[in-house]
Design goal:
Blueprint lengths: L1 H39 L1 H14 L6 H10 L4 H13 L4 H13 L2 H7 L4 H25 L23 H33 L2 H8 L3 H15 L3 H13 L4 H13 L2 H37 L1
Length: about 300
């Protein structure tokens, strides 16, 4: 019995080590880039939202609002107070919807992690998240034109943790906080990927995600709901799933529903949306994930 356990441990450790060597450089680079943007560029990025409002771009302002959401390094609990301050200054709800939706789905750090999946998967993730932000903005603009979609009562912008007077120390401390927050999930993702490689037969996986593309899309969109805890933690799993035959459309669906229904994000969004709008948000995310995944599969 001990010999069997020892042998299995060696196998799993081998897969773990191989996966870690492949992805760790992207993880560390993402941490550094995310921290640099957070420490030195966050305020400039968010000030661009005010510029969009002042330019009176109409419906076309949704496009840069979605891009700014992706560029923002904040988590959802950091994004909502920022959005609340924008709303207090008269920012339109459709711009806020685009900004918040794309911010939920992607940030510079996660974008860098996703490079480990390959350039094509990286492009699919960026475009699908960017368009999701635009779609959210359009829905709010045309269906809630004369009504408020968000309720930011009681929210105020949080004090920044980056207060050290020395800019280098600010950056180092930010990197440390990011490593502490995301490192355990990243290692857990690598471990789950190693276990998947060792114990999930390729033909079983093919039956779920490869042989039936429609069911595969539904499965990918659905498992993104309970499985997603941290973006960095899912990259090793996605890398292995794609290598095992998961369609790019299924991966795209997972990359939308995962962060959009991450439990911490849902908790924050429920507060500012209310029950009715929160249910609409969930329905929108699932529908967008399925449609975008289908389109990606159709194109490739």
């Amino acid at each position: 019995m001990l010999d069997i356990l020892h042998r299995e441990f060696i196998y799993v450790w081998y897969y773990f080590e191989v996966q870690l060597r492949q992805i760790l450089p992207y993880f560390l680079l993402g941490i550094v880039i995310g921290s640099v943007i957070s420490v030195f560029g966050k305020q400039k990025i968010h000030s661009l939202m005010t510029v969009i409002q002042d330019k009176r771009l109409g419906v076309f302002g949704i496009i840069p609002a979605s891009l700014i959401g992706i560029a923002s390094p904040l988590c959802m609990y950091g994004t909502i107070p920022i959005a609340a301050s924008f709303s207090q200054k008269g920012m339109r709800d459709d711009y806020l919807a685009a900004f918040m939706m794309s911010s939920v789905l992607l940030n510079p750090q996660l974008l860098m992690y996703s490079a480990a999946l390959g350039s094509f998967a990286l492009c699919v993730r960026f475009i699908s998240c960017f368009l999701c932000g635009i779609a959210a903005g359009l829905v709010v603009r045309f269906f809630f034109k004369d009504k408020h979609f968000f309720n930011f009562d009681g929210f105020s912008e949080r004090a920044s943790h980056d207060t050290d007077p020395n800019p280098i120390m600010r950056l180092i401390k930010n990197i440390g906080r990011n490593l502490k927050a995301t490192g355990p999930y990243f290692l857990l993702g690598v471990l789950l990927s190693a276990l998947f490689q060792r114990y999930v037969p390729a033909d079983t996986f093919a039956k779920l995600f490869v042989n039936n593309e429609g069911f595969g899309l539904l499965m990918a969109a659905t498992i993104g709901v309970p499985l997603y805890a941290c973006g960095g933690g899912t990259i090793p799993l996605l890398q292995q799933w794609l290598a095992s035959g998961m369609s790019m459309g299924s991966a795209a669906a997972f990359m939308v529903t995962g962060p959009a229904t991450k439990i911490t994000n849902l908790g924050a969004l429920k507060i500012v949306l209310g029950i009715k709008h929160f249910a609409m948000y969930i329905a929108f995310v699932m529908l967008y994930a399925l449609v975008s995944g289908f389109i990606v599969n159709l194109i490739i």
